[in-house]
Fold these 2 entries.
Entry 1:
Amino acid sequence: MDKPAKFYITTPIYYVNARPHIGHTYTTVACDAIARRQRMMGMDTFFLTGTDEHGQKIERSATAAGCSPQEFVDQIAAEFRQLWDRMKLSYDDFIRTTEPRHVRGMQALFTRLQERGYIYKGSYSGQYCVFDELYVDAAGPGAPCPECGRPTETVQEENYFFKLSAMEDRLLKLYAEQPDFIRPETRRNEVMAFVRSGLRDLSVSRTTFKWGIPVPGDPKHVIYVWLDALANYITAIGFGSDDPKDKKKFERYWPADVHMIGKEIVRFHCVYWPAFLMAAELPLPKAIVAHGWLLFEESKMSKSRGNIVRSETILDTIGADPLRYFLLREIVFGSDGSFSFDALVERFNADLANGLGNLSSRTLSMITRYFEGEIPHPSKERSADDEAVAALAGQTISDFNAQFEQFQFSRALETAWGLVSAVNKYIVENEPWALAEKPGQDARARLATVLYTAAEALRIVTVLAHPVIPESTARIWQQLGLGNIERFDLRGLKWGQLQLGTKIGKVEPVFPRADKSTIERMQQMEQEGSTTSQNKSQAAESEPAGTGAQAGQRATEAAVTPAVDAKATPVPGVATGNKITIDDFLKVELRVGEVKVAEKVKGADKLLRMEVDIGSEVRQIVAGIAKAYEPEKLVGRKVVIVANLQPRKLRGLESQGMIVAASLGDDGVPVLAGFLEDVPVGAKLK
Ligand code: ME8
């Protein structure tokens, strides 16, 4: 027998400088759904995910957390893995770039590129963005990164360079000959325009930090993190290993069928990665599929903005399947889409509790009640209604498959749920409960046909939706008496396969309705969770998800809670009246910071979002000073911040600390505190 065809799909490997959030979950869930579906189509599927653990950004986060880089990455990588396991994501391997198999494979790739003459030594002097791990064209010291706006660092070093400039024509030919190499079309156009504008050689080593893979034979250099990271897609399946088993695995699975990524890393995957592979004379992946961003209150959900939502909160309240369904149904794949707890619960109630859940429980409980739990035989006589459901089911299968293949998850689910609504309507119109009351064979036969039709449609929707909502569909499948859903061969799915007389299982509700209190619980957990997770691994964020103080609030009001006991005799260290003691004051950590980034907060005319360097780290601070200060004028300015305040969210953004300002007049016009003498960033005030 021929071996089944193979299918290899990857997620990006996630940075471990921040804890996982639902943005990461989104990509991983999309890949998981594709992988599960491929397995059900008989494909020998390999689904890879993992973590990106090298680089200066991570080295700095480890230093800030007071541990070694290895200890640091071990902790966060474990959190990613635990989360994916809790969500039952069906990955086949989890690669970490600090693993020996990756280090060995990466070095083998580097050597291969050198041997083929694509790597040479040169020197570089210019600006580097640590956040993006990218050399950029920026004006000079401290100038903002053109990609993310964060301040760049000046770097002057001897580097190894990759001859990217030599790959221009070959890349353009690739995009022209394989239009599906980059999806969607908009991303392809952007990439082509970028390559047409000219490519410069790429620096692929660094000497200014240590946390990376040494260049073979020249360990003073570590390999550029993006080359290191991209190589995971081949090292995980055995590239660079001498073990015959690994070699076989690499031959079997490479090239990848799909690299799934977010749109911000298109250039690395669609320009650099194919260029490295071409130079190394390795086959190219078949497709790079870029999705849009998950937004939270209109801005990209990201660790640097601190406006993340953790998947755990949703898992602990309504479970993994509702989140998976929401992400794939609500967001049009390729475009940006918003997340909110209200929308999640609304979608859950409408489509899962009222839609599929209702169809499943009413159909199965009526079969239990009226046919002693056995799938009834439909009568030979079919009404137009019955025929219409069967025809719609057939159409649903073919449309769903075509849309899913094209990564149109939202449309595919909409298609499947079109069948759910049609069958729920069919049940209401055919009133099986009334038929059950009627005497005579005809009514009994009609009742059997209606319930058979509903159960068969339920079976079809359940198995189509399985890759997206695996746990709940597995339960419905069991209740239908059909055993293990994962064994079902999706290729043969068609109307009429439900075995008559199948004994159905115990009927239990699969999607209990959520209500307002569910939303409140999730919001509260997020508030508390962001505080505890921050305490647990404060420095897990390169720019920590912030704490907050109310914008414009004055320091003493915000941070000091005077112990007031008018009757008490004054003793040293105890407050009297409305006075506070020196001990109280010393609880407030005041530090000098420098504003690195300042921008207006969309939809809030008083608020500015700033990134403030306080020496040990960069904090995000949201403050109500937009009316008094132009954001551009604040960049580079030294300010005083209260550094040990509780987290607080303003307009969905977490503020980690508060800027100290005088508050003038009735309107409380803010005037920032500052110094006449020059003071170093991070200095403490007391
Ligand atoms: O870029 N919306 O890692 P990363 C949608 N290590 N997707 C999001 C998202 C959001 N708000 N936030 C994150 C890196 N993602 C590199 C990748 S690959 C060789 C190296 C998802 O931790 C999305 O897939 O910043 C995005 O591309 C990825 O996480 C970025 O993860």
Note: DSSP finds 22 helices and 26 strands in the chain.
Entry 2:
Amino acid sequence: MTLQNILPWIRQARQEGWAVGAFNANTLEQAQAVVLAAQAEEAPAIIQVSHRALTYIGSGNEIQGLKYIAAIGKIAAESVAVPIALHLDHGTEREVLQAIALGFTSVMFDGDGYSLEENISITKRLCEAAHSVGVCMEAEVGEVPKPDGKAYDQAAITLTQPEEAVQFVNATGIDTLAVALGSVHGLKTKQISLDLECLAAIRSRVSIPLVLHGSSGVSDRDIKQGIALGLCKVNVATQLNQAFTGAIRDVLHGDDGLVDPRKYLAPGRDAQIEVVRERIRFFGVSGKAK
Ligand code: G3H
Ligand code: 13P
Ligand code: ZN
């Protein structure tokens, strides 16, 4: 299929109590793993690419990275018969505009570092640009930290305040809202409990679909409850990297003489397919593209 705007599936997920998986890719093989897993599970899915992944793919030039990924995402989506969206994850203002122009079907502006007023004003502008060409728009209120291996203070995380969420959604016109419920990006073990009361309070005031970032570090019990309480898009990155890199590490450890990248990248891709399939089943999406 051609790349799809995934919003109808996210809205269906909200009605029926499941969540669309959004899976980060840094390499060609990781993007392929997402669509092959989605196909195997007959599920809609989202390939997403972060600001730092774009910088990596574009060898330091994130706009070049966007161009590569726009082409790869299009071909990956067309290689399967299930709906696939291509999403810009944690984009800057400039990246969001470029992604829209290059055919991404979904974009996120990351207003981290801006005041609420600045975040609203930039998001509103970008949302108008996205909607003018039928692209789905996500933005965030509150903080899901990106400690990148450094220490952080769990108690100091700014959760999404329900009233700010209402103000933000009403003022910007976004389609989906990323909420901060205590999760943290990049954790390698499932050690976080979400603030589900906060989620319920947001849900009672905000009707658009809600997005969970940093799911790799969140207990599966809380992800499940969070989905029941209205999380309709769940972002997964670190769990995929663990599977991909772990399989590659095993192959390389077992064979000092191996030099052909295909011989270790293929097992990495296969291992990631299994994790994406497991997450798709866990989020309740299997069979939804039938
Ligand atoms: O939210 C972003 C994802 O965790 C990917 O992180 O900045 O390492 O690509 P990254
Ligand atoms: P994790 O790396 O913790 O899975 O976070 C994914 C994410 O939120 C991408 O936006
Ligand atoms: Zn994120």
Note: The longest strand covers residues 84-91.
